[in-house]
Specification:
By secondary structure, this protein is an alpha+beta fold. A four-stranded mixed β-sheet has the order 2-1-3-4.
Length: 88
């Protein structure tokens, strides 16, 4: 199971964390990945000074994600990861 962690702390909440969560859930449903990918809310990920919402995939690095960039993030960080895993 691939897990996407999205910060819902105060700073990220103001930057659109719930927009990111809702969009990620929609993309998971659209791609029929509910059995393979989940979104989990997480409090402060220690990246509050960044421009966007703090997110990470599995144990990967914390990244700053703007709500408008969620689709590209999902494609690059989730779909590509799943494709690589299926090749192995």
């Amino acid at each position: 199971m691939t897990t996407i962690y999205v910060c819902i702390g105060s700073a990220c909440h103001l930057k659109g964390s719930y927009d990111v969560i809702n969009r990620l859930q929609a993309l998971i449903a659209k791609n029929e990945l509910g059995e393979r990918v989940e979104v989990r809310a997480k409090f402060c990920m220690g990246n509050c000074g960044q421009e966007g919402v703090s997110v990470s995939v599995d144990d990967g690095p914390v990244q700053s994600l703007l709500p408008a960039d969620t689709d590209a993030f999902f494609e690059q960080q989730v779909l590509d990861r799943l494709a690589e895993a299926s090749k192995a």
